[in-house]
Each structure stands twice: as structure tokens, then as C-alpha cells.
């Protein structure tokens, strides 16, 4: 892989991982259009770890509070303050919401990594879930904040996150859609989606790293491109998180829905021309 290829793929991963537009669709589409070979598991580990580092760095204070609240919740229930009770509950809700995706990933891993990467399926999920995001943004009441997140809400958003393992769905897109349909405001929908990314990304990184170790680490000649991709994806993802949180405070999700529909139609056109 050339450095140019590595940078382009890393920008795609970092730039689209937290936008509701499906990073997997872009990572499948670009090599497919340009005729590039599959980038390999080691590269996937690098860019996914980069985006994971970005969300941890961006929400480092809140994540530290969640860990502290969870510790107090489990080990010192008698001495918990109200703030720590809320943080501990949110941490447990995030962990509970991760379970459906973890189970679905284990059960359907082979299908997800092979047949599900079909351009036609990616086009369908990009269009279908893009339109659903638009409906959720238009029809959602947007009256609830993070403090009103209940266990039922967390489980429903977690079930929606499991669907994101289907390429083209978009993890951030489907979780924001579910939160908006449940009546949460855009900022809360985006923040909860980002926090949900941490445990599921940790699990995915661990699983893929084990697969890389089982197949053997790549040659040393490929490490410069891989390390560059890691850095680029981390910086791009960090910037995108901040940009999106600022965007949703003053703008709707319509632009992302329209982009997804356009992307799906483009894929269909490319399939028809081949």
C-alpha cells in the first residue's frame, strides 16, 4: 500500500466514522471503484484504533467520571453522591447497550465480513437508513436530555447499534436515529452515540488484533503506511467529533440524509455500469 492510499483510506475512516453516513460504505466503495486490493486486517486495526483514541481523548473528562461513578456504584454504594449515581447509571447503561451488538457480531461475523459487503446491500442500507434518519430528525420531539435516559432507551439504542454491523448502515447514524425517535435532542443523541462507540470499538479492536496475531503480523515495509494511517484517522476523527457536536446544536440532520441517499444512488449507478 502506498502512503497516498493509506492517507486517503485513513481520512475516509476518521472523517466518516462518527458522521451518520457509514464509514464502512466509504471504505468498501473507494477500493472497489479504484481497483485497490483489500487493505488488510493490520490496517483496519490501525485506523479503528485511531478513531477510538480520538473519541476517548475528546470525552476524556466525561469518561473518567463514568469510570469513577461505576466504581462507586459497585464498591461504595453507601458513599455515592447524586452526581456519581447518575454517572454510574449511565456507565452501566452504556455497557448494557453494547451487549446486543457484541452478540450479533459474534453470531453473524462470517456473513458480515463476506456476503454483507455487497455493493447492492450497501446501497440499500445507505438509502434506507438515510431516509429513516431524515424522518427521525423531522418527527422526533427533541425534548429529552441525557439526564432522562432510561434503561429501556439504552436497550433500544443498543439494539439499533447491532444493526450497524451491516455495512452501509452507519453505527453513529442508526444510534442517533433511534435516540431521535425516542424524543432525545440532537446533542444528546450525538453524545450518547459517541460514548457508545468506546466499548464496542474496544471489543472490535481486541477481536481484530487477535485475528492479526493469528495470521501473522505484516512485513516491516508496510508499517510506515500503517502508522501514518493511525495518526491521520485519529486527528480526522477528533476534529469531526467537535464539528458534528457544534453542527447539531444549530442545524438538522437533513444534509446527512440527503448525502446517504445520493451515495446509495451513486453505488447503484456504478453497479449498473459494470
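Q: What amino acid sequence fits the structure above?
A:
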Amino acid at each position: 500500500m502506498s502512503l497516498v492510499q493509506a492517507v486517503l483510506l485513513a481520512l475516509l475512516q476518521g472523517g466518516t466514522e462518527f458522521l451518520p453516513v457509514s464509514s464502512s460504505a466509504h471504505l468498501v466503495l473507494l477500493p472497489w471503484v479504484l481497483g485497490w486490493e483489500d487493505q488488510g486486517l493490520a490496517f483496519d486495526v490501525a485506523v479503528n484504533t485511531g478513531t477510538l483514541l480520538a473519541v476517548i481523548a475528546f470525552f476524556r473528562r466525561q469518561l473518567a467520571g463514568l469510570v469513577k461513578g461505576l466504581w462507586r456504584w459497585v464498591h461504595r454504594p453507601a458513599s455515592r453522591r447524586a452526581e456519581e449515581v447518575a454517572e454510574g447509571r449511565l456507565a452501566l447503561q452504556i455497557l448494557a447497550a453494547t451487549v446486543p451488538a457484541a452478540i450479533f457480531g459474534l453470531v453473524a461475523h462470517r456473513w458480515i465480513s463476506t456476503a454483507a459487503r455487497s455493493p447492492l446491500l450497501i446501497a440499500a442500507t445507505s438509502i434506507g437508513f438515510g431516509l429513516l434518519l431524515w424522518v427521525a430528525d423531522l418527527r422526533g420531539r427533541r425534548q429529552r436530555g441525557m439526564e432522562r435516559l432510561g434503561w429501556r432507551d439504552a436497550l433500544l439504542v443498543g439494539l439499533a447499534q447491532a444493526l450497524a454491523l451491516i455495512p452501509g448502515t452507519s453505527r453513529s447514524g442508526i444510534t442517533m436515529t433511534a435516540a431521535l425517535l425516542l424524543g432525545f435532542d440532537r446533542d444528546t443523541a450525538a453524545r450518547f452515540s459517541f460514548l457508545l462507540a468506546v466499548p464496542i470499538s474496544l471489543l472490535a479492536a481486541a477481536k481484530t488484533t487477535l485475528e492479526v496475531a493469528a495470521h501473522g503480523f505484516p512485513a516491516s515495509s508496510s508499517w510506515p503506511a500503517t502508522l501514518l494511517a493511525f495518526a491521520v484517522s485519529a486527528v480526522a476523527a477528533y476534529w469531526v467529533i467537535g464539528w458534528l457536536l457544534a453542527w447539531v446544536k444549530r442545524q438538522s440532520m437533513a444534509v446527512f440524509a440527503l448525502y446517504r441517499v445520493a451515495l446509495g444512488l451513486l453505488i447503484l449507478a456504478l453497479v449498473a455500469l459494470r
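Q: And what stands out in the fold?
A: Residues 45 and 209 are 7 Å apart (CA to CA).
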